[in-house]
Amino acid sequence: MAEKKDFYLPPTPMRRDRAMKLAKQFAFIGYQIIKLRPSLIPWIAQAEIKVEPEYYATLAVFSSLFQGGMMFALLMVIVVTLNRWDLLLMILGLSMLVTLFMFVRILAYPSLIVLRRVKEIEKNFLYALRHMSIQVSGGAPVFNSMVSIADAGYGNISTEFHRVVREINTGESMGTALENMALRNPSIYFRRAVWQIVNSLRTGGDMGYTLRVIVDQFAAEQRVLLEKFSKELGPWAMMYMMITVIFPTLGITLFLIISSLSTIALNEITLVGFIVMSTVVQYFFLQFLKTKRPSIRW
Predict the structure, then answer these.
(1) Among 73, 104, 119, where does a domain finish?
(2) Distance CA 23, CA 104 (A)
(3) What is the mean pLDDT of residues 232-258?
């Protein structure tokens, strides 16, 4: 089972070894960025990006400048071809905006990976806990239950337990291997459950009872999150209706009134623009609602 992907680097016009060499030479830039955004350090660690935070931040600067420069060069070709030098300032401003956007996006990439991992872990967490609880309560050793979870196909959870099993097989104690798994995972619920399992192992408590308590706690917390989301869904649905129905209708009506009082004409291009804009807004709004939905699978 593969557990590590090749490490990620922000895109630059050079090979990885040269990019890392450049990042080391200008690491002082990354140190200043880390001081302004220290949360980047745990994000990179939990996203398992095998690059030092200061090097990653430095490469984010070079990558954003490279992509902004490429945008400027492409637009300059259009300006020269059309002989529209009056657009030079606008193109320069647009290229700077692209540079800033790409810089923010690259810095945010580790946090997006972490959030994705949290959702993936918590989606299958309740199933994995019940799996382990049933096996341990039935008399199976804890190690055998972890091997079973590693082979059960629970996504990232199975991958993490596969790593734990491998560490134990290479001589690591079970408690230490579980602690390592808790430290490298960003899900609060997952880490808390693993710590409870470790404490039960070290104190010699009833592991079957401990797992049943963890399952009940997590299931109750997920129900609370689901109820909270269902209560918030009503206002979000009203806002969705306003964005997708009321605002476009009122906008087209207002445009018709304005066009009747002036020389502005409502043509096919304008209508297509309204449709495209409405579709884009709907897409991003639905994606936003998707991020608000709890990662629950009963």
Answers:
(1) 119
(2) 18
(3) 78
